[in-house]
Amino acid sequence: MPAFNTLDDLSADSRVLARLDLNSPIEDGTPQDNRRFERHAETVRELAEAGHRVVLLAHQGRPGRDDFTSLGGHAEILADRVGRDVGFVADTYGDEALEAIDALDAGEILLLENTRMCDDELPEASPEEKAETEFVRTLAPLFDAYVNDAYSAAHRKHASLVGFPLVLPAYAGRVMETEYEANTAIATREFDGPVTMVVGGTKATDVIGVMDALDDRVDRFLLGGVAGELFLRAAGHPVGRDVGEMDLFDEQWERNRELIESVLDERGDAIRLASDLAYEGPDGERAEVPVDDIGEKETGYLDVGATTVADYEPAIRESDAVFVKGALGVFEDERFADGTVGILDAIAETNCFSVVGGGDTSRAIEMYGLSEADFSHVSIAGGAYIRALTGEPLPAVETLEAAAERRRD
């Protein structure tokens, strides 16, 4: 069990400052609804229905990037999800924000402006330094409690994540609570049968680190995506390298070659590699080729093949737990979704503990008509999920735990 306090421990009729992660794709200047709004709405609704005065902090993008924008549109989407009005003020801790906070009645909800528009927010620094910023010192006295529901940003040392828990009683929201419990299960739970991890995606550096860290907790790894090709390259196949204008493989190979070769050498019996790969044929249709028939890589491979999926399915069906990090192919293109969807289907049909991690992979569940209810947990976290799997500390979780410890003392 986590060592932090949750909403179950929150005193009634509180003025609550809650940190969410509503970071979303921006299209034509408009935020797109996604799973994060739905999940965080549960926490916000519970706080409002309990009669708390609820003020929300969130971020969107980073300064200088195209998706760095105001949160006005986010407030509208969140209101639809919560089923209550969500006020918005284009200010974070200036006079306009302070007046809007002061005017709140019990059960009302207010979203403040993008925290990353504050100079105090972004630079990584210790919680003690962040607690001394003007941002934290101005807002904190207006509240009785701080709630962190932003598990997907918990690996950051930003003011809104680690500063407030040092100066306010601090609690985990429902997203923080459920994400933490599911994503640390691989390290904290005992499973009766085999534990399998599906490894894919484009960020091979991340998942190779996970494989190395979990070698004593995972019985077998099923590989696809960029990481899968790099392991095939280490096994002597002429893949896992850039062709044309591609820029995915060579740099990651140079950075991780020694670790890949070491993991393959030490855990080769536990690592399953693709036996065939899919690519775009001359007619634009999906085509597949056995890995053993590839003499030279001349095109990009966009998915694992049907034989690989058939090879991987029995390993999943006999597992007691399955953890997914990364897609096996470019599932956004329906032609190359077979690997990712085939594996997710097998997991959904198996009576096992299952966690699908990372925002990109979890989107395949919605895109291809799968049900979230068929998985134990579908994570909305990316970097924090990686850190949880590898046992690295999450600063925002640590500050919640420290706040709980102070209260017990």
Strand order of the largest sheet: 5-6-4-1-7-8
Poorly predicted parts:
none
Determine the structural class based on helices, strands and strand pairing: alpha/beta
* Number of separate strands: 17
Summary of the model, kept short:
This protein is α/β, with parallel strands linked by helices and 409 residues long.
Structure, explained:
The chain has helices at residues 35-49, 72-82, 95-102, 127-131, 134-139, 159-163, 174-183, 185-188, 204-213, 225-234, 250-267, 306-317, 338-348, 359-367, 383-390, 395-408; strands at 15-19, 26-27, 30-31, 53-57, 87-88, 109-111, 145-148, 170-172, 195-199, 220-223, 271-272, 276-280, 286-290, 303-304, 321-325, 353-357, 377-378. The chain has two domains: 7-179 and 393-408, Phosphoglycerate kinase, N-terminal domain (Rossmann fold, 3-Layer(aba) Sandwich), CATH 3.40.50; 185-390, Phosphoglycerate kinase, N-terminal domain (Rossmann fold), CATH 3.40.50.1260. Helix 9 (204-213) packs parallel to helix 15. 50% of the residues are buried. Strand 2 (26-27) and strand 3 (30-31) form a beta hairpin. The longest helix has 18 residues, at 250-267. It is of the alpha/beta class and 409 residues long. The mean pLDDT is 95.
